[in-house]
Amino acid sequence: MTPSLPDSDRPEGASEPPVEEGARRPNRRGGRPKKTEATGRASRVHVLLTVAEKARVREAALRGGLSISEYVRRRTLGRPVTSRVDADAERQLRRIGVNLNQLARVANAAGQVERGTDLDALVAEIRRAIGVLQGGGSSPGEP
Fold first, then answer.
1. Does 142 reside within a domain?
2. Domain count for the chain
3. Domain limits at 94?
4. Structure confidence at residue 138 (pLDDT)
5. Quick one: which of 71, 66, 65 has its CA closest to 49?
6. Would you say residue 34 lies in a domain?
7. Judgement on whether residues 93 and 121 belong to the same structural domain of the protein
8. Which helix (H) or strand (E) element contains residue 64?
């Protein structure tokens, strides 16, 4: 097999020599370009944990659907860590709340529902539940 010359050493207009079947082309790399220092993560922090501490961190990362590195990064930098279940529940509660508000608006406009009924209490309960999931309110059922 004839070795392939790098593009810089190949005469202009010369094509690449034929490559034997099954042979690999040297110096050909595909894939994603390397990130710059500003956008890539190159610094490491080494932390020693007990076996129990590591298990707690791993479990918390799994609940959040994150890698251990991403979980620790978010917790350290003050970014929120929401479990997948909480995020899904919050999304579903928001959809229910939107639908209830739309129904209440139509019913009130048509004069079918009096203000201050159980519907307003239900909407308030959904808002409290969303607040709990976001970590900023009382638990559902509490005022």
1. no
2. 2
3. 84-133
4. 46
5. 71
6. no
7. yes
8. helix 51-64
Q: What token pair was written down for 142?
A: 């509490």
Q: How far apart are CA 128 and CA 90, in angstroms?
A: 11
Is 90 a member of any domain? yes
Please tell me the pTM assigned to this model. 0.41
Q: What pLDDT digit, counting tens, does each position of 47-85 carry?
A: 999 999 999 999 999 888 889 999 999 999 998 887 666
Q: Are 57 and 68 in contact (CB under 8 A)?
A: yes
CA distance 54 to 60: 10
Asked if 73 and 103 sit in the same domain, the reply is no
Q: Which token pair is 8?
A: 């810089």
Higher model confidence: residue 64 or residue 120?
64
Quick one: CA torsion of 57, 61, 66, 67, rounded to 10 degrees? 30
pLDDT in the model for residue 139: 42
Is residue 119 a part of any domain in this protein?
yes
Is 95 in the same domain as 116?
Answer: yes
